[in-house]
Design brief:
401 residues, 3 domains, 17 helices, alpha/beta, Rossmann fold, Helicase, Ruva Protein, domain 3, 59% helix
Length: 401
């Protein structure tokens, strides 16, 4: 009754928003520029789909594999490397519509409603015999919580469980795309038949992408444009090249003079590429001002340097007090000795905890860095406590005259 009431109030709104975006595929693999390895993997995936009846029906594997007869694929790679276009190209090659699922439209404030939306999406794809495409799949297929203590954790786990079940039962083609493959729940690894890595394009691919972004007959391109040089100079994804071309067109169009004489020159493409790359550095801005400063290894090195400065400052202060205060020389010497021991132990712990070769993409190997950072902070706190103790002892000591 409660579900019916919610559907009565919010069902029409949900239909207007749409859980999926239906796309009539227009782009084919001829419109995509990819590295050779990625294109071969996509060719194998497409061949597997096209021979589905032969494998499961004529060869009888459907009788042995009643569940999980659908074909699920995982497209993983950086943004702008062609994952969405390739999903459309597969649907185009199969002659099927493409249903693009977006998690922001599927999520509901009602407990259990998101899981029901997942079921509805799979049913719609089955009715339309469509290719089902989950964009930004790590948002909905993320790792489940090992310890469930809160309601949202229970809800997130339930959503992943329902998605896994529907994926097992769905007889069609499902494609997951993600920029963060490490965040996908490990249970999907077995249920997804093929994992395809979309790598950044090489020099030749970038040159072809620059050229492919322009209309072959209508775009006025000057003779000084060198696409091979652009591909060599700028290591960019296909999405970034697209933005650079649009910026170049805007610059050329805004120059003074009649429109009939305006043309795109090499300088426009260069400036467009530079602006796109500059925008990328802006997006990397962090609390510490740069990517290197926000990296755990860089943070550890900075904290160790700051700790060394603080320890040296404390040493100078203690020696100054030792020159003016009588009867505390022995205590000061002991404190300085302890300070040296703490410094040596902190440096030794940091050397053992830090990995020999940093791996920026890994998340598991970062824990020892934070342990070493904690050791450095602890050493600094110990030194501060020792200074406070010395100062408190000096309150009752009479200076030597």
């Amino acid at each position: 009754m409660a579900d019916s009431f919610r559907e009565l109030l919010f069902g029409a709104l949900g239909q207007r928003r749409g859980l999926v975006e239906a796309v009539a595929p227009r782009r084919s693999f001829d419109d995509v520029v990819l590295p050779a390895a990625t294109r071969r993997a996509l060719g194998h995936a497409l061949s597997l789909i096209q021979h589905y009846d032969l494998i499961y029906e004529r060869w009888g594997l459907a009788e042995r594999h009643g569940a999980g007869r659908g074909l699920a694929f995982h497209f993983a790679g950086p943004p702008g490397t062609g994952k969405t276009i390739c999903a459309e190209a597969i649907a185009h090659a199969l002659g099927r519509p493409l249903l693009i699922v977006r998690y922001s439209e599927m999520e509901s404030m009602w407990a259990g409603q998101t899981a029901k939306h997942i079921v509805e999406v799979f049913r719609a794809a089955e009715r339309q015999e469509a290719v089902l495409f989950f964009d930004e799949a790590d948002a909905i297929a993320g790792r489940r919580f090992a310890s469930v203590e809160r309601g949202y954790e229970r809800e997130a786990n339930a959503v992943v469980n329902v998605l896994l079940h529907e994926l097992e039962q769905f007889p069609g083609v499902t494609i997951f795309a993600t920029n963060l493959a490490a965040n996908i729940d490990p249970a999907f690894e077995r249920r997804i038949l093929t994992h395809i890595l979309f790598e950044m394009p090489g020099v030749e691919e970038r040159a072809r992408i620059w050229r492919a972004q322009l209309h072959p007959t209508r775009t006025p391109v000057d003779e000084d444009v060198d696409f091979a040089e652009l591909g060599r100079l700028y290591e960019m994804s296909g999405g970034d090249i697209r933005n650079a071309v649009l910026k170049a067109a805007q610059m050329a169009a805004s120059e003074p003079g009649p429109d009939e004489r305006k043309r795109l020159h090499q300088r426009h493409f260069v400036q467009g590429a530079e602006e796109v790359l500059t925008a990328g550095t802006v997006m990397e801005q962090s609390l510490y001002g740069s990517r290197a400063a926000s990296d755990p290894a860089a943070m550890l090195a900075r904290m160790q340097a700051e700790g060394a400065e603080e320890r040296e400052s404390l040493r100078v202060e203690l020696e100054r007090l030792a020159g003016h205060v009588g009867g505390t020389d022995r205590v000061v010497d002991q404190l300085v000795t302890r300070l040296d021991a703490v410094q040596t132990a902190s440096a030794s712990l940091a050397a053992r905890a830090a990995p020999p070769v940093p791996e920026p993409a890994a998340t598991v190997g970062r824990a020892p860095l934070w342990i070493a950072a904690g050791a450095a902070v602890a050493a600094l706190l110990v030194a501060l406590v020792l200074l406070v103790l010395v100062l408190s002892m000096l309150r009752g000591v009479t200076p030597v005259t």
